[in-house]
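Entry for the shared binder. Reason: the reviewer on the internal report wants the predicted structure included alongside the sequence.
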Amino acid sequence: MTRYSMVVQWSDEDQLFLVTIPEFAELVVMPCTHGSTRSEAIQNGEEVIEMYLEAWQAEGESIPEAKTLQIA
């Protein structure tokens, strides 16, 4: 599993859990994926992270740094 952040939020409008990946926000359209359950959304989010990382690596693109939560 990667160390990238995922934000999972319920959407009343879509009736789905939507997933955004903060480190990818400037590179891809958000939200990145979704799921009908929180678990499904998280699994889909992990797959999207891996897919983007593999594609960027194959294309020789720079890969965004995973951010670490800093607690003061």
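Summary line for the report: The mean pLDDT is 94.
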